């Protein structure tokens, strides 16, 4: 009976049911359609402002028993989207978004009422089609973004390590092979989100691209596994590597200019069971902070560091994993030391920052310039302050720490878990305890924690177990604890940017006497003398609302007895 009193079309009935339009608005639209039968009811409702295009599209999907998808460009598989030319995508209001395991192509359309589209799309794509529905605006935006990115916005200067600036190869921006277009888009997207590393990882059926942003891996895009060899070959060409060699690891580099900024990219090739994995390490050659204020150290830690770099000789060692900001900290110290009365020299692999007033040298194994033999020559060039990018082996360690004993201020990095653990790491390199005791001024342990996004973070009451795990006492003081939520500004992650955590171990007489003792004993002595540990520094930042307790537990772990 209700249907007889209200003989509305199915579209109108569903919109009224959902509260998208009122019965009165629907009747107005139906009257207009009777006068203009060539118009569609949904178009009339949208043009009159009675319903949104999204509401109409959702109901159309339900009418035709199709899935409605919230279209996100990041979730579109590029190799699928590239199957349909732009002119046809705009004509049909459709975009392929995924190649299914069963061989079908999943295509998002804005108008499921046109039954001819499936046949046309199948012919255009050359593959069977499975249809879903997405908002017209989202499809239009995706088509525009896809084709805007067809021309990479990386400028056309690409140099490999074996080339000079005069004979640099030019990146062919008009090259339209799927592999080249895919790589260009992947690098552009990775740079846009601030990635430090790009991983091209082959699997059985797909080549996945994952990026490390703020220290955490996330998936960026993927392409059919059949394109894996072409992608690896293209990246090898960019890095000046041997494309015929597929069974041995290779290392190369490429320098890219983008938006006036020069970016050094290290390329590492690693053979795997599914093909060659390629990792790009992005090193932005920017400017280091000009003062220690920018590091945000706890006052007592900063005082210990200032005392160490004020000495005429000795070593300042920064330890932590790859990508923890060690070089940034050392260059900040160099900026403080960079005065006209000092001669400063660096040897690095590669040079990450450009700074005036320094003699900067880059390691070049192909030319026979290693850390060890480079150091020998540098020490004959009368330096006052010396930065050694990394102590990797016993020979480099012996030269660097003996230089710190004989009148040079040496700044260097080392891979170790904590400041106290660095002493045993150097002992493993056969550095004598007497040399360590007399050459080291201080050791800095460092990590980078993600900053909570200030646009979407929410205050929270921490779980008591989290407080206990981090040894936060009940009488700690005011706790401005936030939780990560996620919004458009942070890409839905809840974090945006990073902040350093520090522990500064000063080489006191008591510490020097413990060289050779277990690391726990050394750390306990340093704490008794006022050292703030990485975990404690993280808690300081979390209770100040800069990061979260969850992030500190991820970075520094729980406290142990």
What strand line-up does the widest sheet have?
4-8-9-10-5-6-7
CATH class of the largest domain: Alpha Beta
The description of the largest β-sheet is: 7 strands, antiparallel
Q: CATH superfamily of the largest domain, please?
A: P-loop containing nucleotide triphosphate hydrolases
Share in helix:
25-40%
Number of helices: 22
Counting DSSP E segments of at least 2 residues, the number of strands comes to 19
CATH fold name of the largest domain? Rossmann fold
Shape estimate: elongated
Strand content: 15-25%
Low-pLDDT sequence parts: 1-5, 149-176
Integer tally of domains:
4
Question: What is the CA-atom radius of gyration, in angstroms?
Answer: 30 Å
In the CATH classification, which architecture of the largest domain applies? Answer: 3-Layer(aba) Sandwich
Task: Tell me, rounded to a whole number, the average pLDDT.
Answer: 84
Report, as a whole number of angstroms, the end-to-end distance.
Answer: 75 Å
- Which structural class matches the secondary elements? alpha/beta
Describe the structure.
The protein is 36% helix and 23% strand. By secondary structure, the protein is an alpha/beta fold. Helix 15 (394-405) links the parallel strand 14 and strand 15. The longest helix has 15 residues, at 178-192. It starts with a helix and ends in a 5-residue tail after the last helix.
